[in-house]
Automatic annotation (TrEMBL):
Belongs to the ABC transporter superfamily. Sulfate/tungstate importer (TC 3.A.1.6) family. Residues 4-237 form the ABC transporter domain. Keywords: ATP-binding, Molybdenum, Nucleotide-binding, Transport. One of its GO terms (biological process) is molybdate ion transport. One of its GO terms (molecular function) is ATP hydrolysis activity. This is Molybdate/tungstate import ATP-binding protein WtpC. It is found in: Cell membrane. Its main location: membrane. It is a peripheral membrane protein. The keyword Cell division does not apply. The complex is composed of two ATP-binding proteins (WtpC), two transmembrane proteins (WtpB) and a solute-binding protein (WtpA). It comes from Methanoculleus sediminis. The keyword Nucleotide-binding applies.
Length: 241
């Protein structure tokens, strides 16, 4: 099943058009990597697909629901998705409260919250910090707290925007492991943007290369390395290789 279907998506900020006619299909259960140089539009595209902000034009269906004609669906659809940003978002509260936050907001029962928060913190290797103040942790640990907060909500689609840029190797490896396991065991669909080609190859079943506001090529990463469709793509995948 196609879980995200985007056609001719355009996005402008003021007079600057940053996405031009983006087409993208994401299949349920896949890990799709979005790679591309800085400024190519990866974060913007993720914010549109995740329904954080609207496109200026184009068609976008998520879970088979047309999001453009019916903005009333956004809140419900958003609850089925989770997003992790490049900079960890943590609040001035305990690690436990930081992770429990999303579940409380959804009105989950207290014992269920406690069970799931403990499970999630165990999965990211942070059980021993459950009572610590989240802001006292390192950047990598804070990102793992933020990931736990997303995990406890059981998202059907997980969006990761350069989640490990600036992280230490341990946190990077932990996050990659969890994403892989979540995809394999729960069948979660994952969209991850990264400027790290090696990470794209490690994690993604398929990658889309963004160049100057469009998706210039999609396919298995091996194919993109072997047969880049344009000079720009060749240069991008070549430079970092
Ligand atoms: P990437 O994530 O690939 O580095 P972005 O999506 O962050 O690229 O940015 C794409 C382009 O859009 C850049 O030129 C950036 O400056 C511009 N841009 C992104 N967000 C905004 C915004 N909120 N207001 C104005 N310009 C923006
Ligand atoms: Mg970005």
């Amino acid at each position: 099943m196609t879980i995200i279907e985007a056609h001719n998506i355009r996005k402008s900020y003021g007079s600057l058009e940053v996405l031009h006619d983006v087409d993208l299909l994401v299949e349920e259960g896949e890990i799709l990597g979005l790679i591309g140089p800085s400024g190519s539009g990866k974060s913007t595209l993720l914010r549109l697909l995740d329904l954080i902000e609207p496109a200026n034009a184009g068609e976008l269906s998520v879970f088979g629901i047309d999001t453009v004609t019916d903005r009333g669906t956004w809140l419900d659809l958003r609850r089925r998705m989770g997003m992790l940003f490049q900079r960890p978002v943590v609040f001035n509260a305990s690690v436990y409260d930081n992770v429990a936050m999303g579940m409380r907001y959804r009105g989950a029962p207290r014992d269920e919250i406690e069970r799931k928060v403990k499970e999630a913190l165990e999965a990211v290797g942070l059980s021993r910090y459950i009572k610590s103040r989240a802001l006292d942790l390192s950047g990598g640990e804070q990102q793992r707290v933020a990931l736990s907060r997303v995990l406890v909500t059981d998202p059907e689609i997980l969006f990761l925007d350069e989640p490990t840029a600036n992280l230490d190797p341990t946190s990077t490896a932990t996050i990659e492991e969890i994403v892989t396991r979540l995809n394999r065991e729960a069948g979660t669909t994952v969209l991850i943007s990264t400027h790290d080609l090696a990470q794209g190859q490690r994690l993604a079943h398929r990658v889309g290369v963004m160049i100057e506001g469009t998706i210039a090529q999609t396919g298995p990463s091996r194919e993109i390395f072997r047969e880049p469709k344009s000079q720009r793509i060749a240069r991008f995948v070549g430079v970092q290789n």
